Amino acid sequence: MQDIVPELLDKIQQQFTRDLNNNSNIKNIYTKINNGTATHIDVHKFAIETGKTLADSFNKYITIESLPDGRMYYNIAERILNPTLGNNYELIDKALETVQTDLNKKAGFGLKGIRTPLNQGRIDGFIERLSLEENFKDVKWILDEPVINFSQSIVDAGIANNVDFQARSGLTPTVTRIVTGHKPCAWCRGLAGTYEYPDVPEDVYRRHDNCRCLVEYDPGNNKKQDVWTKQWRDPKEKEKIEHRKTIGL
Length: 249
Prior knowledge:
Elements: H1 5-21, H2 24-34, H3 40-61, H4 74-106, H5 120-132, H6 145-168, E1 174-178, H7 186-191, E2 193-196, E3 214-218, E4 224-225, E5 232-233, H8 237-246
């Protein structure tokens, strides 16, 4: 049997790179990351865009016609999904690390953003499920929304790890889950809100397919992030300024 993986993988990776480089949303987010103005919300958007781009590349080249016997065999799924989903993980987690480090500096402490281990178990689950069906058309949906969901989960896990690390460093962070869309489901509505560490439900970091909820957090050191300027500010700063005005009078 001819080994179709090298050529198929090359086409997917090249398509992904081209589409990502031409994506205006990605360009705008990278600009914000490079100039230090990006936020958790921007990283969430970055994950969604990279997930969509990879899913589109999969759907373009992984078809019943391109697979032997119209089936996604285990060795094919393993050799395609590991490098491609692994690359998505690297892009997203690196972006979050950079943004988190910048946000930490703005918040007034020198903690570096924590990187999150790759969830290899989830990738293995994709591979296993894809290879079980004899007809690829019955499982091709796995290479669509679940890929986007996987990409978003990298941000969710990264934020959870950074919150935990900052709490162990002496801060008291709060985590906020924000629902999006016109008709969010009852489960998401029930999770929306702000939680103070350590009383943060595990479900806050979880999501179902097609879920676009956002998760962000406040480090809990008397500084808040202005939702309009995206800058960290001290709630007592105004009081301090007014006090300084009276010095010398």
